[in-house]
């Protein structure tokens, strides 16, 4: 098993048109630790990712991709 201690984020990505009207907004899971954990899991390793995430509306979406791909999150905590 690989254990990774690192950050877990929810990236918020916004783009603006040339005249700053319109544009798009999206969110994506991120963080160096989370990205490493996901890559190791996709390569076939059994992975535990230890991180602290906030206790807000972004916490579940930030960890959802990890859970959905089989990355263990036991020991992670919200503050």
From TrEMBL:
Coiled coil stretches, renumbered: none
Family matches, as Pfam families: PfkB (PF00294)
A single GO molecular function term of this UniProt record: kinase activity
All copies of domain Carbohydrate kinase PfkB, residue ranges: 2-73
Domain of life: Bacteria
Signal peptide start-end: none
InterPro entries: PfkB_dom, Ribokinase-like
UniProt keywords, alphabetically: Kinase, Transferase
Keyword Kinase among UniProt keywords: yes
Protein name, entry field: Sugar/nucleoside kinase (Ribokinase family)
Record organism: Devosia subaequoris
């Amino acid at each position: 098993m690989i254990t990774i201690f690192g950050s877990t984020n929810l990236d918020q990505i916004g783009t603006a048109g040339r005249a700053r009207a319109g544009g798009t907004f999206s969110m994506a899971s991120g963080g160096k630790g989370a990205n490493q954990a996901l890559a190791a899991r996709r390569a076939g390793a059994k992975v535990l990712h230890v991180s602290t995430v906030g206790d807000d509306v972004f916490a579940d979406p930030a960890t959802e991709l990890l859970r959905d791909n089989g990355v263990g999150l036991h020991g992670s905590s919200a503050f």
